Amino acid sequence: DGVTEVLAHRSDNLRDKFIEIPCSEDYDSHKRFADCTPRKCGRGVTDAVVTREEAERIRRIAERGLSLGGSDGGASILDLHSGALSLGKHFVNLYRYFGDKIPDIFTEEDFALYRDVRQRIQQRIAQVFGISSSAMYLTKPTFFSRMNSTGAKTAHDEYWHPHVDKVTYGSFDYTSLLYLSDYSEDFGGGRFVFMDADSNKTVEPRAGRVSFFTSGSENLHRVEKVQWGARFAITISFTCDPQHGIGDPLLR
């Protein structure tokens, strides 16, 4: 795996840590948007945008939603926008499948918190990369993930493969992850790994920590396999292309 350097230990309390890296050529083959398309690339970690208490409240939203389903394999997904929910080896639409139960599962306060946190993360990314927050748009998929040590049953469960978000998801320009549980306390393994030519750089999750980065191949990454426990996170991503923008999820 090469030499591994820890960018953020779980025990750190980071106000802001940012490492600038050269942009890949990926952006040259996409339409450029003023005030948004990355001119400066890199990766950041902050523990100062979302509190631990807020992260715990958001994790409870994920736990309640995932209690309706869950993958047979090690990776379960809940997408409040599209309604996609892992169920066995497949996905169902949460809102269609469990429509009558939704008011018992989620509240308006849950969605307001989700929206507030998303806006704060968006503002921090804009500030760090020197772009306009209003030129960024939330994009899909934006989803909760719960990972555990259960063996993979389908390709969707194989979350540990190295990938580039811009290649996997096209619309992504900036990716963020809000961690909702603690490395080495709630789960083992499951660190986030940036795979650089010279070494690997890891982020150890902690509840309330936000990791964010430009989505091109300058940030090839993977997640280690979870060895024990359950790792909760939410992926919130942004595009510069208004045609790929989506609204915040609404309680239906």
UniProtKB/TrEMBL annotation:
Q: Which GO terms describe its molecular function?
A: dioxygenase activity; iron ion binding; L-ascorbic acid binding; oxidoreductase activity, acting on paired donors, with incorporation or reduction of molecular oxygen
Q: Which domain of life is it from?
A: Eukaryota
Record InterPro entries = OGFOD3 (IPR039210), Oxoglu/Fe-dep_dioxygenase_dom (IPR005123), Pro_4_hyd_alph (IPR006620), Pro_4_hyd_alph_FE2OG_OXY (IPR044862)
Report the leader peptide range: none
Obligatory cofactor(s): L-ascorbate
Cite the entry's keywords alphabetically.
Dioxygenase, Iron, Metal-binding, Oxidoreductase
Q: Which PROSITE patterns match?
A: FE2OG_OXY
Residue ranges spanning the membrane: these are: none
Q: Give residue ranges for domain Fe2OG dioxygenase.
A: 140-242
GO cellular-component term (any): membrane
Protein name, entry field: OGFD3 protein
Which species is this record about?
Promerops cafer (Cape sugarbird)
Question: What is this protein's gene name?
Answer: Ogfod3
